[in-house]
Task: structure prediction
Amino acid sequence: MGKKQVEQLAKKFGYLEYMVERYFALFGSETEVFLEGNEKKLAKTIRCNELVTTPVELKERLVVKGFELEQIQGLQYAFQVKAGQLPLGATTEYLLGHYMLQSPASMWAVETLKPKGIDLVADLCAAPGGKTTLIAQLMENQGAVLATDISRSRIRALRSNISRMQVENTLVIRMDAANLPEMGFLANAVLLDAPCTGEGLIPLDPTRKRSRTLQDIVTLTAVQRKLITAASKLLREGGILVYSTCSFAPEENEEIIDYALRNCPLKVIDTGLSIGDPGFSTPFNQSLDETLVKARRLYPFKHHTEGYFICKLEKIAN
Amino acid sequence: MQARKDRKLIFEPPTATEHTRIRQGLSQYMPVEDVENFLKGKYILVGRGRRNEVYLLTRALLELYQKISTHRHPYFTGLYLGELENETFEPSLHVLRMLTAKAKEKVIVRTTDEGEQHFLYGHNLSLNHLQDPSLLAEMESRVIITNQRGEGIGFCDIATKGTQKPELIRLKDLGWYLRRGW
Result:
């Protein structure tokens, strides 16, 4: 793709040019389809809280209120909301904790972790709690979840959602998760949904087409490296780490995993997901760890969800 | 605008008096034996800060708390039972569902659909918001408000009890999750 074509596409879809250049390097001839995919509105999706109700009962109640729901394939508790007049965040069922507004991508990240039956799960960067409350749901409110977040305002939302969703097995701490290993305990599973540039959220927030710079990626990768190192230290041998972001940038995804594989006792394992494209092992002509193809990438234009990256790792002997 | 200060809680087991107040507070709504069954095998901690917040922990959570508490006090943990205020214990919205399921008959006031919406917007209730206002005379002064399906949606005090036009003064309602939850 020539400079002129990059300029044209950037202008047509309203992106900064450097972003389109990068997308072309990643997606080649599919770039325009990728950009068109980001223009389409994503369907609203909800997750039934099985701690409180059943998907069947929830569907019945919301249908009576005029909503049209369709179950999301592979997620027995999740629905796409195809129609409805009321705001989804203001129904009595919402207030009673019967459901959470949540994207399937973030549900897939928790599904990858498979927290059922695990004694202790750590959820780093947990606010506002969509994934934390799903972890608790899959654990059937048993065991313990340690949820941390650094943001004062977001942690209030986490608390509110835990309470509304009738979650009873979490301990929430407001702190930088990078300091968690100092506490001297080990978890059986860790979910690290790392802070990122959020390029994958462009279909929901088009301002991100122009609000992120290359420097933002550089700044965030330093944080992501620190967090994945901490996550590895928190894990018992044989424990599972799921790393996820809502970014398309390989620097925030495959390169972070590659860094972790070189610096921490971790190996990439299959996500077990039937959805998603393989991770990149040679993005931007770099040669990264070949096992990165086991990671999963979700795209709005292919998977009809926000852009997401999910990688599952296992802690191995030092 | 002044930034909200961080909430710093110091967690401790409750005193014997606080234990009694918590049990009394819960038994306003549910039979004493159900209170004991509910608390059995669990652990109570009081987070002391600007308020005294009461939390109920399972064994697994208590063990986690013990591991981390030498470094940090939690922000929130387990089931938030409620708050110790002066001489009393006020249950939280987090425990409302359980309380409603176990509640004594004389503490349940059912609203009409219109009453439910009115209440969830943070308003007090009057007789025309209730499914059967005649039952109010038999009710205790502190009640759980439910919708037509019998699901707990908040707590009220029956004010001016015994008079011609009693009113239910809203203490807490689930609409808080929208108004203040974030």
